[in-house]
Write a structure and sequence with these properties.
heterodimer; A: alpha+beta; Cytochrome Bc1 Complex, Chain A, domain 1; 14 strands; globular; B: alpha+beta; 2 domains; six-stranded mixed beta sheet; 13 strands; about 25% strand; Metalloenz_LuxS/M16 (chain A); MPP/UQCRC_Complex (chain A); Peptidase_M16_C (chain A); metal ion binding (chain A); Peptidase M16 (chain A)
């Protein structure tokens, strides 16, 4: 077990990798009552294609999310049943590149950990139960399709990545999930749900030695396939620069996507890049900036305006979203700001310093929440650069780092606009 | 630690080393009155946006950044019959910062600007340009809330559930129309009334010196006031007849909202039984609604119940295919009937108890939740300790839960359906 002390920040990270490849990270929180655990599988909605014995396998879209739903359901019980004996709050979610299973509890940590590891690692699927799940997930898909903010976001991502699996909703479509079979689920589980493709993070009222002992014992009793994961990577050259649709909403919504096609470094440099770009968005588009104030005062944006930067396995993009009645002005003025980033950043040294302060403070805030800590422990690509490392990266950041990253990231040919207008 | 700063202005300080930040809430409290919905919302909006010391959103935001990303906002809330305007400020504990800065002190000074230095023109009205812009923004915001169709459905339910209660029938933040009719002179008077006449409760949670906090808030020189806050527990006058309404929209999924009267209120004798009933009926993934509407019949992704102990209401929400409306309503009735008749296992009771207790103990780690609890519970004079709370839950019997289920009264149903 390795130990990393972040003395100034008052917390310690314990790390262990088991012989089967499972990585465990434990962050005890003194004075806390609950314990939060997150078992993340490096498998998401974009992984529906892979090679097996030299052949390209293509699974129905939405399979990773479907698998997540079905993992809870066993032959004669449900994993929720087992957790609820301890009153444990359990949940799961699927993203573009990962599937996470979580629990939060105030008692019986050992028992809860065993339930978590067992239900995620021991699959059971049958035809009737798979069929039944299609109704539930069908309603989930319809729910998101009625949610204009969710629709705007996913449509923008689809436009930026037309020729990749990102061109579909994480949950798939009503038609694609209809095709999912019991065999598909077993195969996906066998290929991707192996310990070397998983990370377990635990934070809260825990003793790291006890936790690691429990997990070790649990894993020593299990066998896993040694099939190597061979992912299919899409080139992702196609981009739709503009599209429009209509929904039952009160005011038009616009999103501007910025697709990153530059090469991102690995290790902690990858996080440094990510933070630099996020700081750029803050400097340029947060309430602090005069550029924001001008857009706000001119009525081009309102309080609904928001932005984010996503950096995941195989892709990275920025997205700016807002409600506006001045659609064309919104697109024109924000695009112009994006493309003149270097000139603007040159006169932003004071703003940079303020944003740096803010980011440092916000990271300390995050350290109050075991779930945030455990969800921010990094991954293989960034060499497990965690929340506490991020604090130090921010502390050492310069404006020139931001300028360099942005210069590399923003390319005028990679902007993509999505508009949703109210139905007439 | 409790202090009275002056008549009608109270300060509670909760020292703890658990968190790396200090959380402050300042609540202005007055009895609810629907005629003031637009005014209170606009006042909160103006206070949040700028003030004379930080005269535009950008300068105000920069001030927050300089305090290491202090979190600041205003909120309008309703607790029973209390209309609360809450100012929230959260700052980092200085000891974790690379170089020591007195953030807490600066934060309290900032709160003084927010409360006492609005942008007033000639002692007469709020700055017109800012007022006009924020008014337009608030109107767009209120309009956009209806983009969330489940929210919309539940708001429509409210109108028919509270037919006789004008202060509870409409949305707390007011309608776009109510916002439109507010003018900036009137808002200035309302502002003076709020800071000088409303009861004020300040709560501070974090690693702080209570006396020091008291001294800083004493510098605010609040005027003494003798007013009532309104009842935190509200017993509404409800209809005898069940109200049903529906509406058709061009959407993918229908939205069902059902309102029941659950005549048990915060700290009543049967309060803990009511919490248990809600957990069993639709409050958890082990509840009857979840297990039947979703898991067994595969009709929905969500089917939940929410219990409000300040108004004695139980709300059920579910997103379903429009063609299944009747079937789902029948299934919900059936689940209620099952609980009324004792048709649920001891294991379900045990699990629901474990669930509520786990949730309660977990909440001790959430500063926001703790402050919310203090704000509500200080009204009823006591904050039950955690062991006592858990004991009360553990004492609940099957019979208690059946009694609660039997006391439930269906009052209103709203369904938002889909065009064919």
């Amino acid at each position: 077990m390795k130990r990393y002390d972040y003395r100034d920040l008052g917390d310690t990270v314990f790390s262990e990798t088991l012989s089967n490849g499972l990585k465990i990270l434990v962050i005890p929180k003194l004075g806390f009552h609950k314990t939060y655990a997150n078992l993340t599988v490096n498998y998401g909605s974009i992984d529906n294609q892979f090679y097996l014995d030299g052949n390209l396998i293509t699974m129905p879209k939405g399979i990773a999310h479907f698998l997540e739903h079905k993992m809870f359901d066993k032959k004669d019980y449900d994993a929720f049943d087992l957790f609820s004996k301890y009153g444990t709050d359990a949940n799961a979610f699927t993203d573009y590149t990962q599937t996470s299973y979580l629990f939060s509890t105030t008692n019986h940590i050992k028992e809860n950990l065993n339930i978590l590891l067992n239900f995620v690692q021991k699959p059971y699927f049958n035809k009737d139960k798979v069929q039944k799940e299609k109704g539930i997930i069908g309603q989930e898909i319809k729910m998101y399709n009625d949610d204009p903010n969710s629709k705007l976001y996913t449509d923008t991502v689809m436009n930026m990545y037309q020729d990749t699996p990102l061109n579909s909703d994480i949950a798939g479509t009503i038609n694609s999930i209809e095709k999912i079979t019991v065999d598909d689920l077993y195969l996906a589980h066998r290929i991707f749900y192996k310990p070397s493709n998983m990370v377990l993070t635990i934070s809260g009222n825990v003793n790291p030695t006890d936790v690691i002992k429990t997990v070790k014992l649990n894993q020593s009793e299990k066998q896993f396939s040694n099939q190597v994961i061979n992912r299919y990577y899409h080139s992702g050259d196609l981009i739709v620069h503009k599209s429009k649709s209509e929904m039952n909403i009160s005011m038009p919504k616009v999103a501007i996507g910025i697709k990153g096609t530059d090469q991102i470094p690995t290790g902690s440099e990858s996080i440094k890049y990510e933070i630099a770009i996020s700081m750029f968005f803050e400097i340029m588009f947060s309430e602090n900036s005069t550029e924001y104030l001008n857009l706000y005062n001119d009525g081009i944006i309102d309080d609904s305006f928001t932005f984010e930067f996503d950096n995941e396995r195989g892709f990275h993009f920025g997205i700016l979203i807002g409600n506006t009645i001045h659609i064309n002005e919104f697109i024109k003025r924000i695009s112009k700001l994006l493309l003149s980033n270097q000139t603007i950043l040159n006169r932003k040294i004071d703003d940079f310093k303020l944003i740096k302060r803010e980011e440092l403070g916000r990271h300390i805030f995050m350290m109050n929440y075991p779930e945030v800590i455990a969800n921010q422990m990094g991954n293989k690509i960034d060499h497990f650069t965690n929340l506490y490392d991020e604090f130090n990266i921010i502390n050492n950041m310069n404006l020139s780092d931001v300028q360099k990253a942005v210069n590399q990231f923003i390319d005028p040919d990679n902007l993509s606009v999505k508009i949703i207008e109210p139905k007439k | 630690m409790h202090y009275q700063i002056t008549d009608g202005v109270d300060l509670n300080v909760f020292p703890t080393k658990q968190f790396k930040n200090v959380n402050i809430t300042v609540d202005f409290i007055t009895p609810i009155n629907c005629n003031n919905f637009g005014l209170r919302t606009m006042l909160a909006e103006m206070m949040e946006t700028s003030n004379a010391d930080f005269p535009n959103p950008s300068l105000l935001s920069k001030k927050l950044s300089s305090m290491y990303g202090a979190i600041f906002g205003t909120n309008v809330l309703k607790y029973g019959n209390q209309h609360v305007l809450r100012i929230i400020l959260s700052v980092v504990n200085e000891k974790y910062l690379p170089s020591y800065k007195s953030v807490l002190h600066a934060g309290i000074k900032f709160l003084h600007s927010v409360i006492f230095n609005p942008q007033i023109v000639a002692n007469r009205c709020f700055n017109q340009d800012i007022f006009k812009r924020q008014q337009n923004n608030m109107i767009s915001y209120l309009n956009s809330l209806n983009d969330d169709k489940q929210f919309y459905s539940t708001m429509q339910l409210r109108k028919i559930y509270y037919t006789n209660e004008k202060n509870h029938r409409g949305f707390l933040l007011g309608t776009p129309n109510q916002i439109q009719t507010v003018n900036s002179e009137e808002l200035y008077h309302y502002y003076l009334n709020t800071i000088n006449q409303n009861n004020i409760k300040i709560n501070v949670l974090g690693d702080v010196d209570a006396e020091e906090i008291l001294n800083q808030f004493k510098q605010f020189h609040f005027k003494p006031r003798r007013t009532n806050s309104g009842e935190i527990v509200f017993h509404p006058k409800l209809n005898h007849h069940i109200q049903n309404r529906s509406q058709i929209l061009n959407i993918n999924q229908g939205k069902l909202s059902i309102g029941y009267h659950l005549p048990v209120y915060l700290n009543d004798k049967y309060y803990y039984a009511a919490l248990m009933f809600n957990a069993l009926f639709g409050g958890t993934p082990q509840s009857k609604l979840f297990l039947n509407i979703r898991e067994k019949h595969s009709l929905a992704y969500y089917a939940d119940s929410i219990y409000n102990a300040l108004t004695g209401t139980l709300l059920v929400e579910s997103g379903i295919d429009a063609k299944n409306e009747k079937r789902v309503i029948k299934l919900i009735d059936q689940q209620l009937l099952d609980i009324q008749r004792g048709n649920f296992s001891d294991k379900m009771i045990r699990n629901a108890k474990a669930d509520l207790i786990n949730e309660k103990i977990s909440s001790l780690d959430d500063p926001k939740y703790l402050l919310e609890q203090y704000a509500i519970l200080s009204n009823i004079g006591k904050i039950p300790n955690i062991d006592r709370w858990c004991n009360q839950i553990n004492r609940i019997t099957k019979f208690d839960i059946m009694k609660i289920a039997q006391s439930l009264n269906l009052k209103a149903t709203f369904f938002l359906g889909k065009e064919d």
